[in-house]
Each structure stands twice: as structure tokens, then as C-alpha cells.
Amino acid sequence: MSRIGVFVCHCGENIGRTVDCGKVALESGKLQNVAISIDYKYMCSSPGQELIKNSIREHGLDGVVVAACSPRMHEKTFRGACAQAALNPYLCEMANIREHCSWVHDDKEAATAKAMDIVRSLVAKTVRNEKLFPIKIPVTKRALVIGGGVGGIQTALDIANSGHEVILIDKSPSIGGRMAALSETFPTLDCSQCILTPKMVDVAQHSKIKLVTYAELESVEGFVGNFKVKIRQKARYVDPIKCTGCGLCSQKCPVKNIASEFDEGLGMRRAIYTPFPQAIPNRPVIDKNNCTKLKTGKCGVCQKICQVGAINYEDKDQIVEYEVGAIVVATGLRALETREIYPEYGQGRHKDIITAMQFERLASASGPTLGVIKRPSDGKVPEKIVFIQCAGSRDSNAGYPYCSKICCMYTAKHAMLYKHKVHDGKAFVFYMDIRACGKNYEEFVRRGIEEDETSYLRGRVAKIYEENGQLVVNGIDTLSGEKMSIKADMVVLATAMSAQLESVHLAQLLGISYDQNNFYSELHPKLNPVDTATAGIFLAGSCAGPRDIPDTVASAGAVAAKVGGLFSKELLEREPIVACTKSFSNMNTCSGCFSCLQACPYGAIEQEIIVDKKQQQKKMVAKVNQGLCQGCGSCVSICRAGCLDLKGFSDEQMYESIIGMGGS
Amino acid sequence: MSKCMESECNSYVVKCYQCGKCSAGCQISPFMDYLPHQVVRFVQLGDIYVDKILQSKSIWYCAGCQTCFSRCPQQVNLPHLMDLLCERSSKLKKIHPEARKILAFHKSFLNGVNRFGRSFELGLVGEFKLRTFNLFQDLLLAPAMIFKGKICFLPAKIKNLALVKVLFKKS
Amino acid sequence: MVVKDKKALAYFPGCSLHSTANDFSKSIKLLMEILEIELKEIEDWCCCGASSAHRINQHLANGLVKLNIDQCKKMGLDTIFAPCAACFNRFKVVVSELGDTTKIVSLPDLISKHLEEIKIKQKLKLNMKIACYYGCLLNKPHSIFKQDCENPMTMEQSLTELGMESIEWPFKTECCGASFSLSNPEVVYQLTGEILRKAQQRGAEIIVTSCPLCHVNLDMRQKEIIKRNNDITEIPVLYLSELIAICVGIPIDKLKIDAHFIQVSKTFEEKFTVCHG
Q1: Chain A residues within an 8 Å CB radius of C170
Q2: What pTM did the predictor assign?
């Protein structure tokens, strides 16, 4: 005979509106094994928790069922309360009568009856609960940061500054990411490079940061505190230690006409190149797809010119393995390719329709035009520019229903920069709504309208075509109801911010989840915005959704704090909800089929040899590595011999809870 | 509006966020009294505003060219909405005076189809002229058309006219 | 690739091809004979209702198309060739709404499909700058047709393959005013006027189309349009089938090109040159 306490929460009106909580409490009190049963408005509040603690002490409870919300929400809270009252926290269970009941039903009587069923089921389960104790595991105090944009840079610096080692990897030859390519930044118009490059230098010089560029994540094994990662260091063909960064090789390389990724195709680079002059590390790489020597074996100019012998055509990709305790994903985003989405705009057919990132390069002092706004077709300084917002964003037809968040601001900035550089120029902005929610953002947009005379027209553009060397932009201003046909010299599309093309692949490598737009999912959108559902893996910056620089930097700091918290302990405590082998009267019934080994997504099943008294091998059986096990239960359900079980969700507990749900 | 049609219309207009791309690209809009996105807006507002649209020229002047629908970021099937509104406007006899000619054309056309199973263009033109009292329009084109053999003087009647007539009766 | 084992196509001429567009009809019949494509006219077909029925009666509009699809099935055929763009569009939309498996093909599709064969049989090519005009009904709406409805290139690609030059222009899918031809010609004067102007501004010497409604507006209404716009000059408008028919060697006088309102110039035949290989 157990002594279980049932605590029914109203959750304000969330549950109370559709479930008669008083009745549930009353009826629960009549159940076998239930010693006390109470309902309360907010069980998770401080008085609610006190109520539970006091009841445990007063009634000598050996089990607690809290009928409230989802265990995802508050299991930790209530188990914590039980622990404070000296009850093993794993003797506390939650009966979910909110998400599973009150939120999805209207009929109060039926919902109350269902709530009772749920409570009964959990009471029956709790009777069979056993005391469990957290698993203690060591922690490797070293973090891996994937992505060297401003988000990754800031995370790496913040973690390193709190005294822990960081490995920062980036797939391109230099860190800096998107921000390094920007001209000036809203809402203060300070130069992007001027504020970013010092941070890049800090990264390079920091004793705790190991910078690995031109590298990608190959595989991940392990779990929080104990990850083993393999990094593919792509062949650079240039020895970064011997190389002095003099740049002679890039100047002499005969392959000249490769569209520069950094300049968004508006400028050219060589086959051996550093992406931009301020690159960190300032060491070139050879683009193997375009290098004549690597393709045909002829050329070798760079090797001849290099005075320190840094060029090595025999270089190969290398796999390097690291042990880390935490992984930070800071892979950022990509500007959407809109050619196919908007054939009516003729992007690609007309050279003077450019993207916002291309405009950034045009406006940047380090860009292909050295900061002079020239249109790509003939180099003319445009007298009229049309900016089109929401190119892809908020377009469910194109499959991008979300707002990209930053385009309103950067478009306002673009129009402003253009006006500052071309005083007689005229800028038009087609917009749907101006979303300037941020400190000094609205003021910034107003400044563009009032001082820099940007004309804002509310509506989408229907069509763009070329006529006499100009672009005819057919749009509308819905506020006046006037159709607008503007002859412009250049059109800039504020292309949507979308997830990186490889984002899904990376998510699968890491075992983290992503949303319908391929952005990574936070553990909780409000309360855990930088955690993922996989312990030890965190999200910084816009890989979780479009973010501007301040938000990215803020999230980077938040991640660093989380990682610091993780690294502050010598041993980590893990939930003991793991699989284990059952034994029947001390007999291991495992038949050694190892279906479980194939079913386990975490590689947590090991093979163990059982020997008899004479040390002869009897058989090979499965054994669970509780450090690796995530408690998903796949092995338990696939085991034909039924010799595996899941702690906290044992066959016995599940059986009782099903029976409990049925019988009244 | 009827409940059924109302729900069909609403399912279209509820998605519209008034970006105006339809109006911006509409070739016929200079002939309309309300721009296409305004038509949607009035249907969104409901009640008396829908009446305003049923009495408008716009719904009748839509050529059904599908350009707006193809470009709409919210997949609002505006041409079909226009069709539904025309049907309603015609049933409730709220047709805009300037649109009567258009309706006359459609009716003359469909009358021919009802009588013969196929459109009879000479009959169509004749009936249209009678309906609109516009006897002299395009008169100058007629001799040339006859000369070029572009006008059939006898309607082609199909054998299974009954099936077509059933469709006309049902609706 | 030459299309082998040709299946017969159910042919839906539509009302226009039986009267005002009998020139279009003639060219199609001659061309299909040469290409050895068997057309089986849908028995006792009825009007598909375009472009009136869907305006005032949805039920009727879909019903009329359905009757014809049923007839086609009775004949044991699975593909309907509807040369009139308006009919083609209605069929395509209804088939999509019903989830019917009957395939609907347009003239540009058909030409493009049999291009290799046309190339083999080709004798002449036209040396004029051609503006391909699709109109609105061959490619829209996008949700049903799933192809580039802003800058379709089917006709241009076919003509290029046949050694002819087409212009790039942005008005090939703009509306010509369609059925307003009779009920409000003012609409047509304005819309079609803009199309003619844009084509000529980009150097077009001839327009090719495959829609009888567009043809009425571009051709029959052209003189009236020129009267109102002194920057537009006469420009002949051919059906795609007429052009291809001439290219594969059908004599011009066998076609009914003289039934067009805008006559081709006396030197038109000289603009064709013999094709080698």
C-alpha cells in the first residue's frame, strides 16, 4: 500500500475553464493508494510548491502526482520541490491534463472525466515507480563553435574570456561571415569592417581560441560534456605557417576571371586568393576547381613566385578529431536566390537588378567600385534607384511565409547611403509594412524619409522590364490608390533571409531539430532561446531565424553564459532515464540478436561477453552504455526477448498506467 | 451573399494582406472603378461594402487573364473571386450600368450555346447589337469579314443538345 | 528525337476555328497532315463556354468542358489537342480541378514536341524578326501550369531551332483585352495597342501567335489601333501553325493567310529562304 498525493492545478483558467478541478481532486482522493488529494489555482507558484512539500512531510507521502501541464513544461519544477521535501524526485509524476485535455476539449463534463482517467493512470504508474539517482559524468571543458561570422566570433571570444578553450571553425578561408561584407550598419551608420575586424584580430590572437578555417564538420559522436567531433580541414594548398601573406601569388595567378564570392559576383578574384584584404587568417587558399595546375598539371606560377615555398600542390583534405564538451552552432543564414521565384522581375535578364548584398558591396569602401555606386551594366552612377522590400519574404506562394526582420532596416540604410553618395539621386522604396522595432530603429527610418528624402511607396511591384537602357518598375502605392510606373537606373531587391543550404545536413549530423523553413529549433522559443533539444548543443545568431547584428551578438553572449554554466562543474548530472538490461532470476535472457544495436541512434549499445564459472565464453549479450543512452526507448521496443527496459518508463509502469486508465 | 458563396469568397480574401501587386500588374485596371486589391478589401470588410463591389464596374472588366493570381504572394485566386462576384451581381441584378454591355455579350454568347450547343457568332453579334441598341458598332468590319469567309451564316447545331440544355437548366 | 508511334489526338477545334478563325483551322489541318499526326475531332463536341460561362455561371462553365472530356473518353483517347488558347485554358483548369488524367496540349507544346520531325521536313525559314506572342491563356495561372508564365520561351526555342530569329520582349504574356473585343473595343484598342507598340519598339517585323482571340484583336482591330496611335505601323500577325506550315513546304496560297485583315507584304514570300540541312 502506497501513500500517494495528488495535486490538481487549475493553471489559472487554462485547465479550470474546461476541467472541474475540484471534482478531479475529490474523486482522486477516493482512489486506492491515494493518501491526500488537493486542487490549487497555480500549483507551480511558490505557495503551490509549498503545498506539495508540506503534504509530503505531513502525510509521509511516498509518491506524488501533479495533474497540471506537460512534463516538458514543469516536471523539473515539481520534482525539484519533492527533492526539497526529501522525496526522491523520480517518485513524482505529472498527469498532463492541460495539453492533453483542457486545451483540446470544449465539453466540461467529458473533459473532467478524461482528466480523471489521466490522473488514475498516473497514480497507477507512480505506485510502481522506483527511486532513481542522477548519473554523473565527466565534462570536457572545451567548446566547438561552428561558423565564424559575428555570432561565432562573439561566442568564441566570450567563452574564451571566461577561461575555457574554444575551437572555432569556418567553412570559408576567412572568418568574418556576412558582416565582413557589409558597408555600414544601422541604425548608427558605423562602418561594419571597422567594428568587426578588431574582433577578428582578437580571435586570431586569443590564447584560448584555436581557429580552424576552410574546414567543415564531418561527424559528431557522444553526448553533452563528452562529444567527439571530426573536422574536415579542406586542402588549402598553401602552408599557413610558411606563408607570410605577402600576396604575390594572388597578383601573379593567371586565372583572373572568377566571380568573387565575397563581392557577390560584382568583382573578380584569382584561383589562389584571400577573400578580402582584412581576412583572418590572412593566408591564401587555392580554389581547386579553377586552378590550372591542379586541373591540368600545367602552370605552377604561384609556386615559382613564392619565396618561402609555402605552395604545396600535393595537399590533401585532413580529418582532425577533437574532444569537446559543448557545441555552438553559429552558421548564420543566406540571402535567398529569387530569380526563379519572381520571373516577372526579370532578375538575371537585366544586369541592373541587383540584390541587397550586392548593393552592400557597391556601397562598401572595400568593394569592387571602392564605394562608388555604379550600376553593373555600364558603370553609370544611377540617378534613380528603386528598392523593393519583401523579395521572397512574406510570400507563401514562394514558400517563404515569414518576415525576414532586417530588410526594412537595411533598405532604409541603403536608400540613405545612396543619397549620401549621390546627392542628386532619388531613391524609391516599395514596402508592405515598415517593421522598425528596435532601439532607435523607427527614428532611423524617419530620418531617411524626412532628411534624405527617400520616397516610400506602399505596395508590391508587379513587373520590371527594360526600356531604352532603363528599368521600368510597375508598382503601386495602395495608400493613394495610384499605380506607379517608375523609370529607374537600378533596382535593388531586398531578398529574403533564408536558412543555409546545408542547414538540414548539419542538423542531421548534430542530431538537432529544425523548423519548416530549415532554421534550427530552439528548446523553447521564449524561455530557452539558445538551447537546442539536444543537451550540450547551443544556437547563436541567425541560424535559428533572421536576426540583425545586435540580436546576434546578444544571443552569442547568452550562449557563452550557458556554456560557462555547463563548464562550471567538474561532473555533470544526467537524468537517469536510460535503458537497462533486465534480469529474470539472475538469468540474462539476451539472445544476442543485436537488433537493439542497429536500432539505437546514439551508439549506446555495447557487446559484452558472458563467461561461466570456468571462464569459458557462454554468449555475447547486449549492454547499455548509460553515458551515451538518451532514453529514447527504441531498443526496448525492438527487443524480441524483452530483456531491455527503460528506467522511469518500465514495462511494469506502462502496463499499470494503461490498466489504470481503463478501470475506474 | 449566399452562405456558400460567402464562405468561398472569404476563403480567398482572408489571405490577402493588401500588398497591391494584383493592381500594380493589372492591364485592365484603368477601366475599373475600384482597383483589384480594393475589390478584395471591400469583400474583406463585408456587409454593405460587398454591395458596393457587386455594383462596381471592376468585377465585369476583369479579363480573367490570371496574371494577378499567378503573381499573388498569398495565392488569392482573384479571377475566380471576380467570377463569383459577377455571378452574384447578375443574380441580384446589381449590374453597373456601364457593365451591362459586357453582361449582354456574355448572355448573347451563352444563348447561342444553349440553342445550338456551339457559339454562333453571327447570331451572337446580332443578339448583342439588339441587347445593347448598338447597331452600328463595327459595321464597317462586316463586309470584309463576309468577304474573307470569316462569317458562317448558318449555326452548327450539335446532336446531343439535350445534355447541354440540362447544364443550363440546372444552373 | 523524332516522336515515334504517334497516338491519335482528340481534336477540339472550338467555335472560333469553325468561324472567324477558319484560317487557323486550315493551317492546323494541313500541318498535321504533313507531320502525320492523326487528329480525331471530338464527336459532337460542344462549346467549352470560354470566355463567358465562367463569368456568370461556374457550374455551367465546368459542365460544358466536362461534356467534351467525357466524349473524348468515349472515343478511347487520352490527349486533347485544343489549338484555341481560350479553350485550352478552360480545359486545363477544369481537368486540374477534377483531378482528371486527360492530357491537354496546346499548339506551341505540340510543335515543340515534334520539332525534330519538323526540322527534317523543313524547307524554308523566315528571315524576319519575329515577336512571339503567347497572350495570357497559354501559361497562366502558375498554380496549374507550373511553368514560366512571365517569360515563356517555348515558341522562341522552336523558332530558334528552325533557324529563325525572335526578339526578346517583355509583353508576350500581357492581356490583349480578349473578349472585350465586342463588348468594349476601347479596352482592346488600349491593351493591344501597347502590345503592338512594345513589339515594334524592339524591332519586330511580324508577330506570331497561337490564340484566335488574340489574333482577332491583333489583326482585325489593328487598323483602328493604328488610326489612334501614329507611332504604330502595320505589322502582320501569323498563327504559329501558318508559319510552320510554310516552313515545311505548304504553299502560301493553300493557306488562308489572305483572310487576315493585315495583309502580308507582296514581297513576303521573298522573305523566306531555302534551308540547308
Answers
A1: 346, 463, 465-466
A2: 0.86
